[in-house]
Design a protein that fits this description.
Number of helices: 4
Number of strands: 0
Strand content: under 5%
Structural class: mainly alpha
Oligomer: single chain
């Protein structure tokens, strides 16, 4: 298996984990709220981190080994400026998802305790 395919596989795994985490943290809670559940719970960290995992996974899935070069410095393994930008965009998406989720729950009559 080539190095490019390894990075693409890792990207697919991260993307799938991000989607699954978003479904588990937001999707199931939203469905429970729409079905009239007395209480609906969510995990703050899961809601925020799911878009980050999905976006980083997408970069690796599409870019392969080139995506790794985009995200990390090969000598140090630290994030590059572009990697930090991708992570920041993912966190911004996570914050937006959290704001949307909380406002949607409030519009359905659920109060955070």
């Amino acid at each position: 298996m080539s190095q490019d395919m390894v990075w693409r596989f890792a990207g697919a795994a991260l993307f799938a984990i991000g989607i699954a985490l978003a479904w588990w943290s937001v999707g199931e809670a939203t469905m429970a709220a729409h079905s009239g559940s007395a209480e609906v719970g969510y995990r703050f960290k899961s809601v925020v981190i799911a878009p980050v995992l999905g976006l980083v996974g997408l970069v690796y899935l599409v870019g392969g080994a080139r995506g790794d070069t985009l995200m990390r410095a090969s000598q140090t393994g630290r994030l590059t400026l572009r990697g930090w930008i991708v992570a920041g965009i993912g966190l911004a998406l996570g914050a937006a998802l959290l704001v949307w989720f909380k406002s949607h729950m409030a519009s359905l009559g659920y109060v955070e305790t």
